[in-house]
Amino acid sequence: xxxxxxxxxxxxxxxxxxxxxxxxxxxxxxxxxxxxxxxxxxxxxxxxxxxxxxxxxxxxxxxxxxxxxxxxxxxxxxxxxxxxxxxxxxxxxxxxxxxxxxxxxxxxxxxxxxxxxxxxxxxxxxxxxxxxxxxxxx
Length: 138
Prior knowledge:
The chain has 138 residues and is an alpha+beta fold. It is 29% helix and 25% strand.
């Protein structure tokens, strides 16, 4: 089975202020074949530190995610959720998404065929990129 690179992202929503506006953007990525959702879980921490988590179709606030095509559930383990929950501030929530980067499938296959192996990766925070680019263009 060929699988493109798989990654996860965690999006924090301070003040438990999640309203679902990002669902259409995620759905667009799926519909255009850019990514395939493998798993998606919400983690919520109240002001006392109590943690709850749920799949996207379990709550009204996350119903906007119900139309996103997802082929697999259960990839995110209870241990993964506990690790994310530990970093979520009080009275905040987080969205944990595991997706396959379909846009990178051709490159991933070429790398494997060439005997290569991806050994590291990461994301650069938006504010760091903006600051760095502003310094270069000034």
